[in-house]
Amino acid sequence: MRDLTYYVAVSIDGYIAGPGGEFDRFLVEGDHAAPIWAKYGGTAPTALADAAGLSVEGSPFDTVLMGWNTYAVGLPGMPSPYRHLRQIVFTRGHQAPAGADGVEFIDRDPVDVVRELKAEEGKGVWLCGGGALAAVLRDEIDRLALKRNPVLFGAGIPLFESGDYDPAAFRPTAVTPFESGVTLAEYTRA
């Protein structure tokens, strides 16, 4: 059975993007970049990885899940951002833009879709955002991999959208601090 991993950059105060949806304060360069890429390779858009000379081979994931807002960050320039992965975008009302070859746009219950994906053969499934989708899938998330960045947003898109749900327990499997100030905190469901 495949695992669902929520792998995402997050501020110290728990936001995956600032009040205007910005995420440009997250550090992409520093001593954390190479070790994190070695562990979670293939988690950059294909064109950006190619431009940086990073191989997308050997990724722990073969499928990426996104809500519409996360997907739309790359529009119009990257309508198929993760061409090296199976791409699934959850949306209720948006149509596929031109050039979105290889992207599946789904208007179904994300929990049902994830359960089907977990039953398939393959590598891990990566939830790359956003906070609303993460909240819906909270009980299906097997692992958390949080690139905690040394910034405060104060407001914005939370790691998990608030809601009325039971607390879930996770246990840390690794916490790796870097000189850049980024800490990779990894957890598995308890």
From TrEMBL:
InterPro entries: DHFR-like_dom_sf, RibDG_C, Riboflavin_Biosynth_HTPR. Gene3D superfamilies: Dihydrofolate Reductase, subunit A. Residues 4-183 form the Bacterial bifunctional deaminase-reductase C-terminal domain. GO terms for biological process: riboflavin biosynthetic process. SUPFAM superfamilies: Dihydrofolate reductase-like (SSF53597). Coiled coil: none annotated. It comes from the Bacteria. One of its GO terms (molecular function) is 5-amino-6-(5-phosphoribosylamino)uracil reductase activity. This is Deaminase.
